[in-house]
Amino acid sequence: MINEGIERPNIFQRGSIEVICGPMFSGKTEELLRRLRRAQIAKLKVEIFKPSTDTRYDATAVVSHDLNSIQSTPIETSSSILLLGSNTQVVGIDEAQFFDDELPVVCEALANKGVRIIVAGLDMDYTGKPFGPIPKLMAIAEFVTKITAVCMVCGAPASRSYRLAAGRETVLLGEKESYEPRCRVCFNLDK
Ligand SMILES: Nc1ncnc2c1ncn2[C@@H]1O[C@H](COP(=O)(O)OP(=O)(O)O)[C@@H](O)[C@H]1O
Ligand SMILES: Cc1cn([C@H]2C[C@H](O)[C@@H](COP(=O)(O)O)O2)c(=O)[nH]c1=O
Ligand SMILES: [Zn+2]
């Protein structure tokens, strides 16, 4: 038979990368949970990962600001996703901005093997700069969903996360006490 033994992608399980991004409180985790739940309803094998450093609501669950949740595996480095996500059909990754620079390579490798990858994360840090591996993931993704929150100053659609707390380090975990979503105009008010 022609092509016998040649490794080809399974067209019935075509891999892809989806990115869900936006500021804090825009609904990234809710959208991730919605897509993963639908995959579970379709009886697909689903694995969910988050950075082990993100312990805000729960050590193992991915939890939205409205406290919807799904069980996940906390991991330290993106290479663990290659090991743990190879024998699954759908991989969900939350808080992807905190992962190392290898995450796009890891996602590409799994997608090429036929895995559907759904990544959620902040596209910008509190200074408005691209955050971690998210911009590269947006470039190589088949589908990018960029969503907005509600600006806490004027009520317009908010694209940015304004830091209320003191501290200039890029990574500073927090919730409403430390951050609020703002539109471009209100984000730049005190600059
Ligand atoms: N300023 C805001 N704009 C939009 N949603 C908000 C805001 N403040 C609180 N929320 C709540 O946050 C929920 C989204 O939470 P979540 O999915 O965890 O967001 P993200 O993962 O993007 O931070 C919304 O459904 C809403 O109930
Ligand atoms: C803007 C910004 C945010 N963070 C932290 C704050 C939260 O712990 C997470 C984002 O969570 P969400 O699910 O998107 O609400 O990231 C940070 O460390 N640095 C920043 O610049
Ligand atoms: Zn505004």
Automatic annotation (TrEMBL):
<feature type="binding site">
    <location>
        <begin position="171"/>
        <end position="174"/>
    </location>
    <ligand>
        <name>substrate</name>
    </ligand>
</feature>
<feature type="binding site">
    <location>
        <position position="186"/>
    </location>
    <ligand>
        <name>Zn(2+)</name>
    </ligand>
</feature>
<keyword id="KW-0418">Kinase</keyword>
<dbReference type="GO" id="GO:0004797">
    <property type="term" value="F:thymidine kinase activity"/>
</dbReference>
<keyword id="KW-0237">DNA synthesis</keyword>
<dbReference type="GO" id="GO:0008270">
    <property type="term" value="F:zinc ion binding"/>
</dbReference>
<dbReference type="GO" id="GO:0071897">
    <property type="term" value="P:DNA biosynthetic process"/>
</dbReference>
<feature type="binding site">
    <location>
        <position position="154"/>
    </location>
    <ligand>
        <name>Zn(2+)</name>
    </ligand>
</feature>
<feature type="binding site">
    <location>
        <begin position="22"/>
        <end position="29"/>
    </location>
    <ligand>
        <name>ATP</name>
    </ligand>
</feature>
<feature type="binding site">
    <location>
        <position position="151"/>
    </location>
    <ligand>
        <name>Zn(2+)</name>
    </ligand>
</feature>
<protein>
    <recommendedName>
        <fullName>Thymidine kinase</fullName>
        <ecNumber>2.7.1.21</ecNumber>
    </recommendedName>
</protein>
<keyword id="KW-0479">Metal-binding</keyword>
<dbReference type="GO" id="GO:0005524">
    <property type="term" value="F:ATP binding"/>
</dbReference>
<dbReference type="GO" id="GO:0005829">
    <property type="term" value="C:cytosol"/>
</dbReference>
<feature type="binding site">
    <location>
        <position position="179"/>
    </location>
    <ligand>
        <name>substrate</name>
    </ligand>
</feature>
<feature type="binding site">
    <location>
        <begin position="94"/>
        <end position="97"/>
    </location>
    <ligand>
        <name>ATP</name>
    </ligand>
</feature>
<dbReference type="InterPro" id="IPR001267">
    <property type="entry name" value="Thymidine_kinase"/>
</dbReference>
<dbReference type="InterPro" id="IPR027417">
    <property type="entry name" value="P-loop_NTPase"/>
</dbReference>
<dbReference type="InterPro" id="IPR020633">
    <property type="entry name" value="Thymidine_kinase_CS"/>
</dbReference>
<feature type="binding site">
    <location>
        <position position="183"/>
    </location>
    <ligand>
        <name>Zn(2+)</name>
    </ligand>
</feature>
<keyword id="KW-0808">Transferase</keyword>
<keyword id="KW-0862">Zinc</keyword>
<feature type="active site" description="Proton acceptor">
    <location>
        <position position="95"/>
    </location>
</feature>
<keyword id="KW-0963">Cytoplasm</keyword>
<comment type="subunit">
    <text>Homotetramer.</text>
</comment>
<comment type="similarity">
    <text>Belongs to the thymidine kinase family.</text>
</comment>
<keyword id="KW-0547">Nucleotide-binding</keyword>
<keyword id="KW-0067">ATP-binding</keyword>
<dbReference type="Pfam" id="PF00265">
    <property type="entry name" value="TK"/>
</dbReference>
<dbReference type="GO" id="GO:0046104">
    <property type="term" value="P:thymidine metabolic process"/>
</dbReference>
